[in-house]
Specification:
By secondary structure, this protein is an alpha/beta fold. It has helices spanning 12-16, 24-38, 65-75, 83-88, 91-103, 119-133, 148-159, 175-183, 203-215, 238-251, 275-281, 319-331, 337-346, 357-384, 407-415, 420-432, 462-480; strands spanning 49-50, 142-145, 165-171, 187-192, 219-226, 254-258, 291-296, 310-315, 388-389, 398-399, 402-403, 434-435, 437-438, 451-454. It folds into 2 domains: 12-60 and 364-480, Aspartate Aminotransferase, domain 1, CATH 3.90.1150.10; 112-346, 3-Layer(aba) Sandwich (Aspartate Aminotransferase, domain 2), CATH 3.40.640. The protein is 44% helix and 12% strand. Helix 10 (238-251) links the parallel strand 5 (219-226) and strand 6. The protein binds pyridoxal-5'-phosphate. Its EC number is 2.6.1.2.
Length: 482
Amino acid sequence: MAPPVTVNTINPKVIECEYAVRGEIVILAQKLQDEIKIKLEAHPFEEILYCNIGNPQSLGQQPITFFREVLALCDHPPLLDKSETQGLFSKDSIQRARKILDQIPGRATGAYSHSQGIKGLRDTIAAGIEARDGFPADPNDIFLTDGASPAVHMMMQLLIRSEKDGILCPIPQYPLYSASIALHGGTLVPYYLDEATGWGLEVSDLKKQLEAAKSKGIDVRALVVINPGNPTGQVLAEENQKEIVKFCKEEGLVLLADEVYQENVYVRKKKFHSFKKVSRSMGYDEKDIHLVSFQSVSKGYYGECGKRGGYMEITGFGADVREHIYKLASVNLCSNISGQILASLVMSPPKAGDESYESYISERDGILSSLARRAKTLEDAFNKLEGVTCNKAEGAMYLFPRINLPEKAIKAAGEAKTAPDAFYCRRLLTETGIVFVPGSGFRQVPGTWHFRCTILPQEEKIPAVVTRLTDFHKRFMNEFRD
Ligand SMILES: Cc1ncc(COP(=O)(O)O)c(C=O)c1O
């Protein structure tokens, strides 16, 4: 009898879905790492340098002390009654933990919460958004989630009815979007970021792609904007954001604003502006635009990816639709409580005068300034490589250099039945231990090749990345020179 489940009988949408940041190259990297553990000389390098995923703490970034103090106290409230705690924990972390515990029904982090998230924490987040934007935020608009990913899935589930429903997504894009659209059976409608203008977003291209999709019978429902960008690292100018907001209003599109890198801006001339602030400053309110903003505890200077915390702020949707969003959240009961607490902390960190304030500022600025230096060093190194050009990482955690591969390398990749940029990344990994993600995993203008490199290896490891990459690149180009 045939097995009850085979790849021919599973949901074809699962087969169609791809997730490059944890794809083939990364699986190979893990295998090489296991081999090195058993035998150090197994490969021509002693360690794998993971530059493939935005997972800061896996590469040694330290969590913010204040956040962890509050979490620890909330998770084990008896600590609050011990005299030693006063000496071990900062005063403001003790106060904050008491306040948060008072907001949690039953004072228990092991209990389910309201499906939208603990109300007191949503109040704190709303106040944080208000302080950031200068416009009011309503705690009832906030849904706490296990990171931004489930929030994105929830919105796709809500919006996509069939393959006739389209979602406009930037290309290159973060693969969560293509994967989620594929899983929910919709159509990804691409718009291209312009590499020549530092990954600029042209509203004229949005219009062109929207019209093209409509002419194929696609009902385009939403526009995804990732700002600061992943994998491209650009920070949108406010004027550009205004054009995008206007476009969504005029075309009746939901604006899905992925703002998880809001704290990761490295250039003085650019600033993060939330789409909510931009739309409100244009005089648009709830009636004018449906807007969802995603935020996460995984990014910024906090980098708490494994804690799985985040929220979405939903504005403009009618009460009846919101009831259904609430129902969707209820199907998962609630997001995890540590993640909820962290989401409130990142939107309300220590203030001037609090005992932790100075250590918090020094930890935060230390991380962000180091990320900025790493981004610049890697950008300069990429731009020195033959046939490689790399835009500035204005924000986020990545560089996305373009590589002009020799014809012979493209042919060799074809013979190996792999994309040319995947061929390059595979060779880079097996010869140097450096893990990049091929640009094909993020989609790119056809005929162009890229790779994505995170700026997350610790600063002292960056020179090793640069030297190994530079030597490898020379060898590779010499081998395949036309
Ligand atoms: C642009 C973007 N959005 C969303 C996410 C999802 O993050 P999380 O689910 O950890 O919040 C990521 C993760 O790398 C990302 O880069």
